[in-house]
Write a structure and sequence with these properties.
By secondary structure, this protein is mostly helical. The protein has a single domain, classed as Alpha Horseshoe (Serine Threonine Protein Phosphatase 5, Tetratricopeptide repeat). About 75% of the residues lie in helices and about 0% in strands. Helix 2 runs antiparallel to helix 3. The chain is globular.
């Protein structure tokens, strides 16, 4: 009987974590649709906290974060987010979308190839 209770609690806690992550991600998309990027960032932080054991969600979160940064006209930050996504998840569907966003930013004049990497020059040789 005890084993059954322990198993039921373990299954319910895993389901709760998944539900919580999905709930926050859905809220982030709703906030993005309303144009409330501050709320999007808050909800994505909640997704990050609940998804540490589920890395498959990170590319989707990164793309949405980049889109919000773009909407807030933080183009260099958005480009860095997209480049991170492309570098760490190269075969992922969201990496392809990130490449398209970088191309769009480039066509609009908000990004040049290699610009995001140059924008963050904090390398060990420059640390003091």
């Amino acid at each position: 009987m005890r084993a059954l209770i322990v198993i039921a609690l373990a299954v319910s806690s895993v389901g709760c974590t998944r539900w919580s992550m999905d709930h926050h991600l859905n809220n982030a998309y709703r906030a993005y649709d309303r144009g409330d990027c501050q709320r999007v960032m808050l909800e994505l932080s909640q997704v990050d906290r609940t998804s540490r054991s589920r890395p498959f969600i990170h590319p989707e979160v990164s793309l949405l974060r980049g889109q919000c940064l773009e909407r807030d006209k933080l183009y260099v930050d958005a480009a860095q987010t997209y480049e991170y996504l492309i570098q760490h998840y190269p075969g992922n569907e969201y990496a392809y979308r990130a490449k398209a966003r970088l191309q769009t930013l480039e066509r609009l004049g908000h990004y040049r190839v290699g610009e995001a990497a140059v924008a963050n020059p904090a390398t060990p040789s420059t640390w003091r």
